[in-house]
Write a structure and sequence with these properties.
By secondary structure, the protein is α/β, with parallel strands linked by helices. The protein has a single domain, classed as Rossmann fold (3-Layer(aba) Sandwich). Helix content is 47%, strand content 16%. The strands form two sheets. Strands 3-2-1-4-5-6-8 form a seven-stranded parallel β-sheet, sandwiched between helices. A two-stranded antiparallel sheet has the order 7-9. β2, α2 and β3 form a beta-alpha-beta unit. α7 crosses α8. It is globular. The structure holds NADP nicotinamide-adenine-dinucleotide phosphate.
Length: 267
């Protein structure tokens, strides 16, 4: 069977877990070599072993996305070790589940550092290389939370709306340069990030491989935005465009916030 990513070189942040891990494995199955970026070396080693079992190259890079220098070094290493780069998946992030009235500014800044500035550290580290080669895709894992804010995710929603807005502008400014910006908007995905959230039947947790496939589709078809899943996410966005009261009501009656099943901490 023809592999979709044969000969391609990809770097993925947050590759030690969840969506990043699934994307690394899916990319490898489709023929790509991958640079795996995150902080936890042990977990990166496990993912690298699975990538190599697919016959592809895996480069392990320990880096913290909140540290711009660490990210620049990671991008340089990825390009050197892979011999180039075609796609950079800005995926690493953290989640904080806490009602807005109880948040501290410190907590809000922490989420912003990872989910907004952390993503931008990656964008600014890889953009000059892609501009110079006049090709390359920056694909970000945003969230349905960057289309419609759902309680009690205010800190996370704020950061995800911010990155959504920034990348919308960037993709328009990069038109004609050969550099593509794609955004993925997943709903609830079955990863360690939301182990503490039980979801209603109407929005069950989806396998991370579904998001991984969307990342590859965004890269191959130069898609601007992909929502996962398509229908329920679009329904909420359309409802919000018609009336915020309607979309608030849909969130409420469908219990889209889910239920805490234990800890209430940032991961
Ligand atoms: N799960 C969902 O329902 C869902 C829905 C929509 C969007 N998303 C988004 O999808 C992305 C991936 O989340 P996930 O669900 O796969 O969560 P996850 O399983 O908790 O994985 C998060 C990844 O981010 C990495 N990470 C966190 N902070 C980092 C930092 N400062 N520097 C480098 N790496 C860091 C973690 O690696 P280390 O700890 O090893 O550094 C880990 O690999 C996030 O941007 C998240 O907001 C998730």
């Amino acid at each position: 069977m023809k592999q979709k990513m044969t000969g391609k070189k990809a770097a993925i942040t947050g590759a030690s877990s969840g969506i990043g891990r699934a994307t690394a494995l899916r990319m490898a199955k489709e023929g790509a070599d991958v640079a795996l970026i995150a902080r936890n070396r042990e977990r990166l080693e496990e993912v690298a072993a699975l990538v190599r079992a697919e016959g592809r190259k895996a480069v392990i890079i320990e880096a913290d996305i909140t540290d711009a220098e660490s990210v620049k070094k990671a991008v340089r290493t990825a390009i050197e070790e892979l011999g180039g780069l075609d796609v950079f998946h800005c995926n690493a992030g953290i989640y904080l589940r806490c009602p807005a009235k109880d948040l501290t500014m410190e907590q809000i800044r922490e989420v912003m550092e990872a989910d907004y500035f952390g993503c931008l550290n990656c964008v600014y580290a890889v953009l000059p290389y892609f501009m110079n080669q006049k090709s390359g895709s920056i694909i970000a894992t945003c969230s349905m939370d960057s289309k419609k804010g759902v309680p009690p995710d205010a800190a996370y929603v704020g950061a995800k709306f911010a990155i959504n807005g920034f990348l919308q502008v960037l993709r328009q400014e990069l038109r004609g340069t050969g550099v593509h910006v794609g955004m993925i908007f997943p709903a609830r995905i079955d990863t360690p990030m939301i182990d503490n959230v039980d979801c209603p039947k109407i929005t069950p947790k989806i396998e991370p491989d579904t998001v991984a496939k969307a990342v590859i589709k965004a890269y191959l078809k130069k898609k601007k935005e992909i929502t996962v899943p398509y229908f329920s996410c679009h329904l909420l966005t359309w409802a919000d465009a018609i009336s915020p009261s309607l979309s608030d009501w849909l969130v409420r009656v469908n219990k889209l916030s889910g239920e805490d099943n234990g800890s209430n901490t940032a991961k």
